[in-house]
Design brief:
Elements: H1 3-11, E1 18-20, H2 21-24, E2 26-29, E3 46-50, E4 55-56, E5 61-62, E6 68-71, E7 87-90, E8 102-104, E9 112-113, E10 117-121, H3 128-135, H4 138-148, H5 158-161, E11 165-167, H6 171-213, H7 221-225, E12 228-231, H8 232-235, E13 236-240, E14 254-257, H9 259-264, E15 269-270, E16 275-277, H10 279-282, E17 286-288, E18 293-296, E19 298-299, E20 308-311, E21 317-319, E22 323-328, H11 332-338, H12 342-348, E23 358-359, H13 362-365, E24 369-372, H14 375-417
Parallel strand pairs: 3-9, 14-21, 15-20
Antiparallel strand pairs: 1-11, 2-10, 3-6, 4-5, 7-8, 7-10, 12-24, 13-22, 14-16, 17-21, 18-20, 18-22, 19-23
């Protein structure tokens, strides 16, 4: 018998009392304001306002990455100022996934919260950390799923949450459960940080060797003499794409790569396409043949511009606007790897134009000078970098899997610890 089971047998042998949320806790919605009442800086005598994006969904933790500032001309009630022990909850969102996500306020902070948010405050008989764990449990997510499916509005109103039934065991049991779950959460966070650090170290190692391998002025003179430094328009031709939008995608057809997917989905090379377009539309789009480079030429930041993927598939595919196809006679993966180097990045920055939306033209791309060694040397470099990339990718794929397994373990024990026999009828209240 576990220590928790012993405590339950001793302190509540007849079962645990369940109460309606509305009878137990306070539910306070946030402030409302308009665009003209937003402030530019804290020095403007402003309220700092937390919103839905300040709660990280995956970890139910608070972040301060994008805090809204609002003039103190906006009326804020005393109850709308965050306090230590508050539970901040997303009460309204365009996505049902985000409704109900919570973060715990562990210390007094000088912040309020927006109108699509709410704060939950607990009475003395309820440990607020205990309630926080309840609100991250399968019990609450199942209740929300059922409640929100009955409405077309993704809004956690007071009327919905007040009917949520919560267990209220003796405070000593609540405290012990909190100690266990908090420790588990701490250990999970430590593991995640260690794995992330390992991944970052491998990435830096990979980037170092990639830059060294592709910096031909730092290696032996005989090899240097075999390398030609050529402008890209001397070794190939550029074709600017046009006309492809995500709404054009179909389940079957001709393979295509949208420029946005180069940033979000593809790595250094690809042998199969994620998306497809109808053959009739494909006839009008820019063709990509095996060995071609597809280069994203538009981005919101200079770092992402010119991210390139080498197409190595057997079939001819297509691409569209904001992408440039580079046709050449070199090793495609060698070129794609060189596009990732500091040397290439330093050159492209000279030609990028724009502020909020940045772009590089095919004509300017053609001016960039790159080293072209013998084909045998290109293949040798690619073989080495492929091994590094495989190692990093294996870790990248293994990392989320390991983290997910740990979270599932935590969720299992959390829901087990938060499952109690009801006092009134002796039945077990399921958590999932």
């Amino acid at each position: 018998m576990s220590h928790i089971e012993e405590m339950i047998r001793e302190l509540c042998p007849d079962g645990v009392e369940y109460c309606k949320f509305g009878e137990t806790c306070k539910y306070i919605r946030g402030i409302t304001y308009n665009k003209s009442q937003e402030a530019k800086s804290v020095t403007d005598d402003a309220w700092r306002v937390l919103r839905a994006n300040n709660i990280t969904l995956s970890s139910n933790t608070l972040n301060f990455d994008d805090v809204k500032l609002v003039s103190k001309s906006v009326k804020v009630k005393e109850a709308q100022l965050l306090r230590k022990g508050d539970i901040l909850i997303c009460a309204g969102s365009g996505s049902k996934e985000h409704v109900g996500k919570v973060a715990y306020i562990s210390e007094n902070i000088d912040y309020t919260f927006g109108g699509f948010m709410a704060v939950i405050r607990c009475p003395e008989r309820l440990n607020s950390r205990f309630l926080f764990h309840l609100l991250t449990s399968g019990m609450f997510s199942d209740y929300l799923c059922s409640a929100l499916n009955s409405t077309t509005i993704n809004n956690l109103s007071a009327g919905i949450i007040k009917d949520f039934s919560i267990p209220v065991p003796p405070l000593a049991i609540q405290n012990e459960i909190v100690n266990i779950l908090d420790k588990f959460t701490e250990l999970e966070a430590e593991l995640e940080a260690e794995l992330e650090a390992e991944l970052e170290a491998r990435r830096k190692q990979y980037e170092y060797y990639r830059n060294r391998l592709l910096t031909f002025n730092e290696i032996t003179p005989p090899r240097k003499s075999e390398t030609k430094w050529l402008a890209m328009n001397e070794i190939g031709t550029f074709i600017r794409g046009n006309g492809l939008q995500k709404k054009d995608f179909v389940e079957r057809g001709v393979g295509c790569i949208h420029y946005g997917q180069i940033y979000t989905y593809y790595g250094t090379f690809a042998k199969s396409a994620k998306s497809f377009v109808p053959p009739l539309l494909a006839n009008k789009l820019t063709k990509v043949e095996s060995g071609d480079l597809i280069i994203a030429c538009t981005s919101e930041n200079v770092e992402d511009i010119c991210k390139a993927v080498a197409w190595l598939g057997d079939d001819t595919i297509v691409t569209g606007g904001h992408a440039i196809v580079f046709k050449h006679g070199q090793n495609a993966k060698y070129l794609a790897y060189y596009f990732q180097t500091d040397m290439f990045s330093d050159q492209k920055r000279r030609y990028v134009k724009g502020t909020k939306v940045m772009d590089i033209t095919a004509n300017d791309l053609g001016k960039i000078i790159i080293p072209i060694p013998q084909m045998e040397e290109q293949q040798h470099i690619v073989a080495i970098l492929d091994k590094f990339e495989t190692l990093v990718n294996d870790i990248s794929e293994g990392l989320p899997a390991e983290i997910a397994a740990r979270r599932q373990q935590y969720e299992y024990y959390r829901d087990k610890l938060l499952t109690f026999k009801r006092k009134e009828d002796g039945k077990i209240q399921p958590c999932s």
